[in-house]
Design a protein that fits this description.
Largest sheet of chain B: none
Largest sheet of chain A: 8 strands, mixed
Largest interface: A-B, 36 and 25 residues
Oligomer: heterodimer
Strand order of the largest sheet of chain A: 3-2-1-4-7-6-8-5
Number of helices of chain A: 15
Distance between the termini of chain B: 72 Å
Structural class of chain B: mainly alpha
Shape of chain B: flat
Mean pLDDT of chain A: 87
Shape of chain A: globular
Helix content of chain B: over 70%
Radius of gyration of chain B: 26 Å
Number of helices of chain B: 2
């Protein structure tokens, strides 16, 4: 009986994985098809130029904040319609001074200094304080380590012509990709996520995800939602679902590109992914029921929303299926050795093709669309991040579960430190 | 019979995995497409135009060589006919 229960459970897990495969095949085909029929829509031709506030939270970002502010002063968007709010979040380095020097030169730049008594409580807390000062119709957010295109404001703000659009997301591209194997693998994941996944969701009218940076909101909508939820670690995913549940849509503009400085060592990678996984799981418990019963979401949005909310459970399901597969091999005497081999190999192959978050074929399609050639050779190396994410997500799951059972919110914001290793690529290129 | 099949399968798996990672090792040792992808309008365009003109020059010099070769062949054929 135990074996039969295990077999049924195993099949259910395999079915869930298959559902994700189908979903991502649809995504990939949709983007490949759209790329064929793509028409250029140059940002210069857009007449819609609303007032825009740009929020930049910064905690100990002295190595990168200067390049971002310098790039913002080169933006092609009319400066009289721009307000830049830098949030120096209890920094102990020169971040505040660098921001102040820009403030003294440019009237559209404002700086808020948060000291240790009210600062360093996470990004959402800083964003809420900065948001209270935003005067623009549109509020855009950039992390301090980001380096956007000069015309990115035009590209992002044009999406708000549609009154149903409450938020917008642009594309993230890894700046320090050549640095080492970690940055190269992160770049692959980003390409899968932003070149294919996000664009497909936008094309298919599904749940486009706001990534917390390189994007923005309609000010009035964000006010009605009362800003960011400070109790959730993935405040971006949380806001994504609150936007959709309020009846608005999020658009994605793949042409609005912005560099990011990716994590460059495995420890930083682990900490960042742990924060994302935990935050995402918090959002799953917070929103999944609301998504299911929302009258403002279509059936396909509900299905995609639930799959998006559960995506960080995937590595745990992989582990479960492997654990179940092994007793099926050794205890089921009726099975031949070949069948036993298949029991183990099927989930491994299946889940390996699925990947954790962006499946391998999706990454390949993204690289093809970007015109990348030999980087495709690195795709098998994603197996390492695939297995590395299993313990990360498992720990996040148990921590979320523990905090739900005990009722104690023990979430601590672990900030990703940026070493400025991407600076050399900008300087060399210019 | 079954044991040897399993051994063969295991060996095939090891070889497949090795082959799977070989290109990745090559690209990591000698990166030729390591990025970063140029996105910022100011320097992105300069780089791509410089690259294009370089390619055109190469193409033209190749074409010149090919034309010279064809000319030689034609002369040779003419000599044979004579």
């Amino acid at each position: 009986l135990l074996l039969e229960v295990l077999e049924v459970f195993f099949l259910i897990l395999t079915l869930i994985m298959s559902a994700y495969i189908v979903r991502h095949y649809i995504f990939t085909l949709s983007v490949l098809r759209a790329a064929k029929n793509k028409k250029q829509n140059p940002a210069e031709s857009v007449k819609y130029k609303p007032s825009v506030s740009i929020l930049i939270p910064a905690h100990n970002e002295e190595k990168v904040i200067g390049r971002l502010l310098a790039q913002i002063t080169n933006f092609t968007y009319p400066k009289e319609k721009m307000q830049v709010v830098v949030l120096d979040d209890a920094s102990s380095d020169q971040t505040g001074k660098i921001a102040d020097s820009f403030k003294s030169k440019y009237s559209f730049i404002e700086v808020i200094h948060r000291d240790k008594s009210n600062g360093a409580r996470g990004k959402a807390s800083a964003m809420n304080q900065g948001f209270s000062l935003c005067r623009g119709e549109i509020v855009l957010c950039f992390d301090a380590d980001y380096y956007p295109q000069k015309d990115i404001v035009e590209k992002l703000s044009q999406c708000f012509l549609d009154p149903q659009v409450g938020a917008v997301q642009g594309r993230v591209v890894v700046l320090n990709e050549p640095q080492n194997i970690v940055t190269r693998l992160v770049a692959l994941e980003r390409i899968g996520g932003y070149r294919v996944d996000q664009e497909a969701r936008d094309n298919l009218g599904l749940i486009t995800q706001f990534g917390g940076t390189v994007g923005g909101f309609r000010n009035s909508m964000l006010k009605s939602l009362q800003g960011w939820d400070e109790s959730v670690l993935a405040e971006d995913t949380d806001l994504t679902f609150r936007v959709y549940l309020a009846g608005y849509k999020i658009r994605y503009n793949v042409d609005a590109e912005c560099y990011e400085e990716a994590v460059d060592n495995w420890e930083s990678y682990r900490r960042q992914r742990y924060r994302w996984a935990k935050g995402h799981m918090q959002c799953f418990f917070k929103h999944s029921w609301n998504v299911l019963r929302s009258p403002k979401l279509s059936i396909r949005e509900k299905i995609d929303g639930l799959m998006l909310l559960s995506v960080y459970f995937m590595p745990i399901l992989v582990l479960l299926s492997l654990l179940i597969g092994l007793p099926l091999v050794f205890l089921d005497s009726q099975n031949s050795a070949l069948n036993a081999f298949l029991w183990v190999s099927i989930p491994i192959c299946l889940y390996s093709f699925v990947g954790n978050f962006a499946p391998f074929f999706e990454v390949g399609a993204g690289l093809y669309l970007d015109g990348r050639t030999r980087t495709q050779w690195l795709i098998p190396c994603l197996l390492f991040t695939f297995f590395f994410n299993i313990p990360i997500c498992l720990k996040a799951f148990f921590d979320v579960l523990a905090s739900r059972i005990t009722g104690k919110n023990r979430h601590v914001w672990e900030k990703t430190m940026h070493s400025g290793n991407g600076n050399c690529y900008i300087e060399n290129s210019s | 019979m079954l044991d040897s099949l399993l051994v063969a399968l295991a060996m095939a798996s090891v070889v497949s995995v090795g082959l799977l990672f070989l290109p990745a090792i090559v690209e990591l040792k000698k990166p030729r497409d390591a990025g970063p992808r140029l996105i910022a309008d100011n320097f992105g365009k300069n780089c791509s135009s410089a690259k294009t003109s370089l390619i055109n020059i190469e193409d033209e010099s190749k074409l010149d060589c090919q034309l010279a070769d064809i000319e030689d062949y034609l002369c040779a054929i003419k000599n044979v006919e004579d």
